[in-house]
Amino acid sequence: MTDSAGSSDVAEFTEDTFLGGQLHLRQPRSGHRAGHDAMLLAAATPARSGDRVVEFGAGIGAAGLAVARRVAGIELVLVEIDADLAVLARENAAANAIAADAVVLDVASAAPAFAAAGLGPDSVDIVLMNPPFNDAARHRASPDKALAHLADASTLENWVHAARRILKSGGVLSLIWRADAIGEVLAALDRGFGSLAILPVHGDAGKPAIRLLVRAVKGGKAPAHILAGLMLRDESGAPDRGVQDILAGKGVLPLAIP
Fold first, then answer.
1. How far apart are CA 125 and CA 132, in angstroms?
2. Which residues contact 161 (CB under 8 A, 6 or more apart)?
3. How far apart are CA 39 and CA 56, in angstroms?
4. C-alpha angle with apex 43: 42 to 44, nearest 5 degrees?
5. To which H or E segment does residue 187 belong?
6. Are 194 and 225 in contact (CB under 8 A)?
7. The model's pTM
């Protein structure tokens, strides 16, 4: 996709704006593309200035860079398995004048690989992630979408395990996942995480949730709680104004408020 100087074939990419024009991102024209999920994840992440924040499966860096745009002074690390996407993430950070380190790393790697990338145990305040969530046994994806979308039975568990390893005690994991797989989320977080806050995301009012946004605390002891659902569209089918404000960078979701 890109050469060593970071130049690229314009025909293969689009230039897109997020957060109401506050964030400008280049991304591949085909394959997995950043969208609402990334912006909702960023708006649900409770980062504070001075925090070390790591995005797993960062792709072009959309969610992590959106957090950095909202919260000045974080130390941002973007972890991505695809070297070409990592280059794009690095370019996007520079284009938006955001300090960020893009690391080429498989989230399922063992602890030594993380340590070699500067992500040793108990060294991070916040991890945010949008893991591959489609069951590979039930979905067929084109090769350029496979890594971004397809998961096996161990994917979520592996990603949560990696987050648990690098988070400090009291550190926060923020994730988005399929609502119909809530059991997998709860099982993956059962070891080492607590104080869960769960926000169901509904495509349409009156219909079942399609996504879950979850905040979990390493070593947290408070009871889990489920927040009132977020409706992307209102009863008339029109985009919800509150959600549109959040996507435009004019507010945050309740999960971002500790």
1. 23
2. none
3. 15
4. 90
5. helix 182-189
6. no
7. 0.89
Give the separation between CA 175 and CA 1, rounded to whole angstroms: 28
Mean pLDDT of 125-144: 66
d(CA 122, CA 132): 24
pLDDT tens sequence across 137-176: 433 444 444 444 455 668 999 999 999 999 999 999 999 9
Whether the predicted pLDDT of 7 surpasses 50: no
**Residue that the structure tokens 């959309």 belong to:** 62
**Residues 84, 4 contacting (CB under 8 angstroms):** no
One-letter amino acid for residue 116 of the chain = A
C-alpha radius of gyration, the chain, whole number: 17
Residue type, 192: G
According to DSSP, residue 104 is labeled E
Tokens of 143: 């090769």
Instruction: Give the residue carrying structure tokens 């040793």.
Output: 120
CATH (residue range 35-192): 3.40.50.150
Q: Using alpha carbons, select from 194, 244, 41 the residue that is nearest to residue 131.
A: 41
β-bridge pairing 209-218 and 230-231: unpaired
Count, residues in the chain: 258
- How many of the other CB atoms lie within 10 Å of CB of 24? 14
Q: For residues 35 and 38, what is the distance between their CA atoms, to the nearest angstrom?
A: 6
